[in-house]
């Protein structure tokens, strides 16, 4: 990214955090009435499947291992977020 492009970005962004079935999601879609958390969770799951299966071409067993790894990375954040709430 060019320095000017970086400088043009806002210093902060507003995000919405929500949990579905124990998983924490973060989005810039702020209107909870228009963007229901259950629907967003389904879309996130579909997106990950598409990106992983289509672009990376991973088998299902590798996908599960990768998802377990990602969830493991996210666990400390989830724990910190719950402690701060």
Provide key terms for this protein.
extended; single chain; 85 residues; 60% helix; mainly alpha; 2 strands
How would you characterize this protein structure?
The chain is mainly alpha-helical. The chain has one domain (3-84). Helix content is 60%, strand content 12%. The chain is built from 3 helices and 2 strands. Strand 1 (16-20) and strand 2 (23-27) form a beta hairpin. The longest helix has 25 residues, at 60-84. The mean pLDDT is 79.
Q: What is the average per-residue confidence, as pLDDT, rounded to a whole number?
A: 79
Strand order within the widest beta sheet: 1-2
User: What integer value in Å does the Rg equal?
Assistant: 16 Å
**Biggest beta sheet summary:** 2 strands, antiparallel
Low-confidence stretches: none
Series of secondary-structure elements, N-terminal to C-terminal = HEEHH
Distance between the termini: 35 Å
Structural class: mainly alpha
The percent range for strand residues is 5-15%
How many structural domains are formed by the residues? Answer: 1
- Outline: extended
How many helical elements? 3
What share of the residues lie within helices? 55-70%
Number of strands: 2
